[in-house]
Amino acid sequence: MKVPLLDLKAQYAKIKPEVDAALIKCAESQYFILGPEVDKLEASCAEYLDCKYSLGISSGTDALLLALMAIELKPDDEVIIPTYSFFATAGVVARLNAKPVLCDNDPVTFNIDPAKIEALITPKTRAIIPVHLYGQSADMDPIMEIAKKHNLIVIEDGAQAIGTQYKDGRKLGSIGHIGCFSFFPSKNLGGFGDGGLVTTNDDALYERMKILRVHGGKPKYHHKFIGANFRIDEIQCAVLNVKLPHLDSWTKRRQENAELYTKLFIEKGLAEKEGNITFDAKNKILLPEPVYKNTGHPHYHIYNQYIIRVENRDGLKDFLTKNDIGNEIYYPIPFHLQECFQYLGHKKGDFPLAEFCADTSLAVPIYPELTTEMITYVVDKIAEFLNQ
Ligand SMILES: *Cc1c(COP(=O)(O)O)cnc(C)c1O
Q1: Cα(269) to centroid of ligand 1, in Å?
Q2: The pLDDT of residue 236 is above 90
Q3: What is the pLDDT of residues 259-315, one digit of tens each?
Q4: Residue 89 beta carbon below 6 angstroms from any ligand 1 atom
Q5: Which domains does the chain have, with CATH numbers?
Q6: Can you say whether residue 296 is alpha, beta or left, with left for phi > 0 and alpha for psi between -120 and 50 degrees?
Q7: DSSP string across 102-151
Q8: How far is the CA of 376 from the centre of ligand 1 (A)?
C-alpha cells in the first residue's frame, strides 16, 4: 500500500465542481489582485477567527514580515522566538536587521516555553513571536502577561494553526496584537499557490498594514511609509473561499485520524499514553499530546502535523520511505544550530529540548482523506520496524 504524507488530489476530487466554477468565474471577471474574492475572504476569515480585521497577504512569510514592519521594528531591536520552528519565523526578524533571540521549547507541546521567556528580555526587546506549532496553541496567557508587563508586542505565528482554539476557546490570531497565517498548499487551508493572512483587533495596526501591503502609499503614490508588494491574488482567494466552509469538517477528520493513531499505537504496546517526554524503552514512541483536549472546545488541536518521536528516528524514516509511507522531519535543525545564525553565538546543547525534538521527531500522514486501512498499515509498519 502507498500512503503519501499529503494527498491534495483526494481533497480536490471532493470539491472539484465548486473549485472549477470559482476559477472560471475568476477568469471571466478579469480581476487579478485585491478584488472582490479578496474582500470576501478577508470578511470570512475575520469572522472565522473572531478578529476585527483580516488582510490577505502574498504568503505566510510576508504576513510575518509585514507585521514586524507595521510595529516599526528597527535594526538591533530584539525579537524573542522559539529556536524550534519553520525557518520563516526567524528569517523575517533577521531580514529587518533585528536580532532573533532564541528560546527553548516545552517538551510536550513543542511550543515556546513561557517560563523561559522573561530571562531573555533586555531593554532592546520589542516583540515575542509564539509559534503554534503543528496546529496546537502555544500557552498564550503567560506570554501575554509577560508582554504586558514589559510593554512588548505579541505576533502570533499561526501558519500551522488556522482555526485552532486556545484553552479558553479563543481563536488563535485574536489573542496577540497581530496574527499571521499561511495558505501554502500543505497547510490545513491551502490555496493553489502562495498566500497568507494577517489579523488584528487594533485599528491603527490594521490601517498601517493595509497601507504597507501596497508599498506604503496612501493615497496612491504618496508615501508616508516604506512598504512592499504584499498583495494576494484573486485566484488564490477564489479557491480559499470555496475551501473555508469545508475546513471544520477536515479538521474533525484530522482529529479522528490522530485519535485512531493514538489508540492503535497504545494497543500495539508501542506507547503508554500521550505526551510522555522521555523514552522508557528503546522500541517505544512518544505520542503527541493534545494538551487542551479536555477543555471541550472543538478545535483544541487542528493537527497540521501528527508528530511522533522515536529514538532511532533516522532508521524509522528510511524504513517508512522504503515501504511507500510518506514522512518528514519538521524540523531537523533548530535555529541556533543553523549555519546562517552562527553569528548569534550559540552552540549544541544550548537548547536541549529543541535539540531532542529535532533529533527524534517524525511526521506521519494525518490528512483528512486517509482511510482506517491506511492508518492501520502505517501503525503496523512502524510496529514491524520497532519490534525487529
Ligand atoms: C508555513 C509556515 C510559515 C510560512 O508560510 P509561507 O506561506 O510558506 O510563507 C511561517 N511559519 C510557520 C510556522 C509555517 O509553518
Answers
A1: 35
A2: yes
A3: 999 999 999 999 987 766 777 767 889 999 999 999 999 999 999 999 999 999 999
A4: yes
A5: 8-103+110-245 (3.40.640.10), 247-386 (3.90.1150.10)
A6: left
A7: EE-B-TTT-SB-GGGTGGG--TTEEEE--B-GGG----HHHHHHHHHHHT
A8: 30
- Alpha carbons 11 and 387: distance in angstroms, whole number: 34
Kind plus residue range of the DSSP H or E element containing 360: helix 352-360
Of all protein residues, whose CA lies closest to atom 2 belonging to ligand 1?
159
Does the Cβ of 82 fall within 6 Å of ligand 1? no
The answer to whether residue 388 scores a pLDDT higher than 90 is no
Q: How far apart are CA 92 and CA 207, in angstroms?
A: 21
Ligand 1 atom closest to Cα of residue 160: 15
- Write out the three cell numbers for 14: 471532493
Q: Identify the band that residue 104 occupies on the pLDDT scale cut at 50, 70 and 90.
A: very high
Continuous segment of H or E residues that includes residue 9: helix 8-29
Looking at ligand 1, which atom is closest to the CA of residue 131?
Answer: 13
Residues with Cβ < 8 Å from 39, sequence gap 6 or more?
none
Paired sense of beta strands 196-200 and 53-57, if any: antiparallel
Neighbours of 5 (CB within 10 A): 16
Q: Report whether residue 200 contacts ligand 1, using a CB cutoff of 6 Å.
A: no
